[in-house]
């Protein structure tokens, strides 16, 4: 795989057939990655588009490149909406990077009863770094869709948002749940799925009862208890795999 195919860059300043990169991004491509100053690079805007861009010698100074071609990539189906009760900051940074790489459509940070440390109370301090982590995730995986991620919401607000989903497609990761294989067959036929992950201390009994009263589906995703960030990746990965297997049969 050559450098053009191996690397993809992120750019969100596009006007007509011109894209304006941060100068340090172009400098990294030319100086560190040793890309040709008259060559091509791939970029995405995080909105489903991949661009082929022509580098010019002056690009290192201006940050500007010419867009030669573009193509639109559809989102994964079903779209994954991940409602994740907040773990500690490092774990959350890790999981948003991984979920972005996997193609999650939306990541909703949820403040539930057993969330601890409350680092999210200064969300504006962390928002920029979290976005950079998500961008790193999509660049690594060549996924051209940057997830939507609002600020943290209270459990009750998350429950209201989950009301927009078919309750059969609201999947709660829980050791006492049914095997995931028992519901995989119906998942590829839906437009969107809500994946619900508890904090390190788990959901409270009251929160669990709310899910049950709304008819959400509890699934056991592993034989052992998983960390919040690992559980999110395993659950989403299983749903993506179910879709992949469904596609291979058609």
Write the layout of secondary structure elements.
Elements: H1 3-6, E1 8-10, E2 14-15, E3 18-20, H2 23-32, E4 40-44, E5 49-54, H3 59-62, E6 64-72, E7 79-85, H4 89-102, E8 106-111, H5 123-141, E9 153-154, H6 155-162, E10 170-179, E11 192-197, H7 205-213, E12 217-220, H8 228-248
Parallel strand pairs: 1-4, 7-8, 7-11, 8-9, 10-11, 10-12
Antiparallel strand pairs: 2-3, 3-6, 4-5, 5-6
Helix pairs in contact: 4-5, 4-8
Observed structural traits:
elongated; 6-stranded parallel beta sheet; 2 domains; alpha/beta; Alpha/beta knot; 250 residues; Ribosomal Protein L25, Chain P
Question: In brief, what are we looking at here?
Answer:
This protein has 250 residues and is an alpha/beta fold.
Model description:
The structure is a single chain. The strands form two sheets. This protein has a six-stranded mixed sheet. A six-stranded parallel sheet has the order 9-8-7-11-10-12, sandwiched between helices. The mean pLDDT is 91. The protein is of the alpha/beta class and 250 residues long. It starts with a helix and ends with a helix. Strand 7 (79-85), helix 4 and strand 8 (106-111) form a beta-alpha-beta unit. It has helices spanning 3-6, 23-32, 59-62, 89-102, 123-141, 155-162, 205-213, 228-248, and strands at residues 8-10, 14-15, 18-20, 40-44, 49-54, 64-72, 79-85, 106-111, 153-154, 170-179, 192-197, 217-220.
């Amino acid at each position: 795989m050559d450098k053009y195919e191996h690397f993809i860059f992120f750019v969100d300043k596009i006007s007509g057939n011109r894209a304006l990169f941060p100068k340090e991004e172009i400098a990294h491509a030319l100086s560190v990655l040793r890309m040709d100053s008259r060559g091509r690079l791939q970029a995405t805007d995080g909105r489903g588009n991949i661009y082929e861009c022509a580098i010019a010698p002056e690009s290192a100074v201006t940050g500007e490149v010419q867009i030669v071609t573009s193509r639109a990539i559809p989102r994964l189906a079903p779209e994954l909406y991940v409602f994740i009760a907040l773990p500690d900051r490092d774990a959350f940074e890790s999981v948003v990077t991984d979920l972005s790489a996997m193609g999650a459509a939306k990541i909703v940070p949820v403040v539930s009863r057993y969330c601890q440390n409350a680092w999210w109370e200064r969300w504006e301090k962390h928002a920029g770094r979290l976005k950079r982590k998500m961008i790193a995730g999509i660049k690594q995986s060549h996924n051209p869709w940057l997830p939507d991620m609002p600020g943290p919401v209270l459990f009750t607000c998350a429950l209201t948002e989950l009301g927009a989903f078919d309750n059969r497609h609201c999947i709660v990761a829980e050791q006492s749940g049914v095997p995931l294989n028992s519901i995989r067959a119906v998942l590829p036929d839906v437009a969107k799925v809500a994946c619900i992950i508890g904090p390190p201390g788990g959901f409270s009994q009251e929160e669990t009862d709310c899910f049950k009263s709304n008819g959400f589906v509890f699934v056991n995703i592993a034989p052992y208890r998983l960390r919040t960030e690992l559980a999110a990746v395993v659950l989403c990965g299983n749903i993506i795999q179910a879709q992949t297997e469904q596609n291979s049969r058609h």
